[in-house]
Specification:
CATH topology: Rossmann fold
Number of helices: 5
Shape: globular
Strand order of the largest sheet: 4-3-5-6-7
Helix content: 25-40%
Strand content: 15-25%
CATH architecture: 3-Layer(aba) Sandwich
CATH superfamily: Response regulator
Order of helices and strands: EHEEHEHEHEEH
Number of domains: 1
Distance between the termini: 47 Å
Length: 180
C-alpha cells in the first residue's frame, strides 16, 4: 500500500532563504504539491545536537523533515528504506541517538528495522511515524514512541526532543542503578 501526501510543510515564511531553498528542492521532485509554511521558524523550535537517523520512503517528506531537523541543530543521516538504514547505520562510526522511521515501507518496515538495529545500537531511541495506525501493531518498547502522520514540523521537533530526553533519562537511571 502506498500513501500520497497532499502538502509539504516547509519553512517559516516565503522570504526565508531556507524556506525558498526547500521549496525549490521539493518542487524539483513534485511540482504539484502545495506548500504550507510553519507558524514558527526552526530556530524557535526545540533544538538539539544529537545524531538522528531519518528513514522515510517518501522523498518529499524525508527531504522536508531532514532539512528542518538539520536547521534545528541535529546531525541527520537519511535512508530511503530499511535496508538503506541498515547500511547507513553500519557506515556511521559515531552514536545514533534517535531513529525516526516510517512504519510502512517497501521491503523492511519500521518495526523490523528497529528490531534489527536494536541488536547493534541498543541505546538508540526510536520514533515510529505512520499514517496507517488502524492496521499497525507496533512494538512500543520503553525506547520507542509513535507520531501519527501527517504532522507539522513543530510537532516533529517537540516529539524528537521528548524522545531524546526520555532516552537520556533512561540511560542515567540504568547507569546509576545497582547491578545485580
Amino acid at each position: 500500500m502506498r500513501q500520497r501526501y497532499d502538502l509539504v510543510l516547509c519553512g517559516y515564511q516565503s522570504t526565508d532563504d531556507a524556506a525558498v531553498q526547500l521549496l525549490r528542492q521539493v518542487r524539483q521532485h513534485d511540482s504539484c504539491l502545495p506548500v504550507v509554511f510553519l507558524e514558527e521558524p526552526a530556530a524557535l523550535s526545540p533544538r538539539g545536537c544529537e545524531t538522528v537517523l531519518l528513514v522515510e520512503d517518501e522523498v518529499s517528506v524525508r527531504m522536508a523533515s531532514a532539512i528542518f531537523l538539520a536547521q534545528s541543530g541535529y546531525q541527520v543521516l537519511e535512508a530511503s528504506d530499511g535496508e538503506d538504514a541498515l547500511r547507513v547505520s553500519r557506515e556511521h562510526a559515531g552514536p545514533i541517538h534517535l531513529m525516526i522511521t516510517d512504519v510502512v515501507m517497501p521491503g523492511m518496515g519500521g518495526p523490523r528495522l528497529a528490531e534489527r538495529l536494536a541488536e547493534e545500537r541498543p541505546e538508540m531511541a526510536v520514533l515510529f511515524v505512520s499514517g496507517y495506525i488502524e492496521d499497525t501493531v507496533l512494538p512500543l518498547e520503553a525506547t520507542s514512541r509513535f507520531l501519527q502522520k501527517p504532522f507539522s514540523l513543530k510537532v516533529l521537533a517537540r516529539e524528537v526532543r521528548q524522545a531524546l530526553e526520555a532516552s537520556e533519562a533512561r540511560a542515567m537511571v540504568e547507569e546509576n542503578s545497582p547491578r545485580g
